[in-house]
Amino acid sequence: MKDLFLRAARGERTERPPVWLMRQAGRYLPEYREVREEYTFREAISTPEVAERVSVQPYERFAPDGVVMYSDILVTLEPLGFEYRIESGVGPVVENPVETAEDAERERRDVREELDYVGELLERLSARLGEDAATVGFAGGPFTVASYVFDGGRDEARRFRARHPDAFADLLEAFADVTEEYLRFQEESGADVVQLFDTWAGELSPEDYREYVLPHHRRLFDSVDVPTILFVRNPNLGLVSEAGADVVSLDWTVDMAEAREGLGDTPVQGNLDPARLFGTPESVRRETERVIEKAGEAGHILNLGHGVMRNTPVKNVEEFVETAKRVER
User: Fold this and answer.
1) Residue 23 annotated in active site
2) Is 107 exposed, middle or buried (0-12, 13-18, 19+ CB in 10 A)?
3) What pTM was computed for the model?
């Protein structure tokens, strides 16, 4: 239910934890695989009627409390003029990567024009779901998305920061500018909540995170009025708590009870290991109940500690969601 989701995001006590899953639609669903036989990934996310169909596939099966739009964090490459393709078995490949300090100087295009298909998707989802479930938008964080524009990924991004600190800062600023406009566009288009995936920011040193990333996180969360969620893999809880997100999403490497104590009144999301969904339904139920118990009765949105993995048994995803719905407080 949308109200349940939003109340938990505000830190309120709820009769049960709201539940949804990161990477909620994907190849573990046979109906998704059928769509991908007809459309490439980029065709599917950029065609609103197709993206809507994919977005609601898990909702039609499991009825989670939040429906995340079917998209990708890399769409914010487009307004900055980066050209990319998705190679099977390899992942995203940027065809005009950043190699020199001059390459980091980007001319920004209009986000609403470049990503108009995302706005239409969110409008469709919001109208379809109404009060039954929250419409969840998202964007990639500046460091994580910037990591993909270097040959060598995030390791090369950190090396570039060492060689060209000013150019690195300018590049993150450009991504932050685009992401701010993108999140506002999502809110205007019907998103009830937005999540920022700065997944790889946890690989930065505390000093680099504080200097290069934290100011952008604060700015982005201040730019919208809907509830915000921050996801960082292997997070430094002391630092992410300063970012200003309404909710901190935890991966499975973090003990939920310890995180709750460390974060105080800040609502949390997570954090079952996605690999646990490859066990028996009984073990899924047991481990899910453990997470719920550790999280407590207020300010917890149940989720995985990362996205649903390929080939995850559908029955175990259903058990995960249903375990949340059986909670009685």
Assistant:
1) yes
2) exposed
3) 0.96
Calculate the alpha carbon distances from 209 to 44, 199, 240, 317 in Å.
Answer: 34, 12, 9, 34
Which domains, and CATH codes, for the chain? Answer: 2-325 (3.20.20.210)
The catalytic residue among 7, 16, 23, 106 is 23
Give the active site residue among 148, 182, 209, 212: 148
Residue in this structure with the two tokens 């390791």, named with its chain if needed: 155
Strands 84-87 and 91-94: antiparallel
Helix axes 30-38, 48-62, angle to 10 degrees: 170
Counts for the chain of helices (H) and strands (E), in that order: 15, 9
The neighbouring-strand residues paired with 138 are: 195
310 carries an active-site annotation: no
DSSP 3-state assignment of 171?
A: helix
Tokens 């630092």 sit at which residue? 239
Which token pair is 95?
Answer: 């065809």
The pLDDT tens digits of the residues spanning 57-114 come to: 999 999 999 999 999 999 999 999 999 988 777 778 899 999 999 999 998 999 999 9
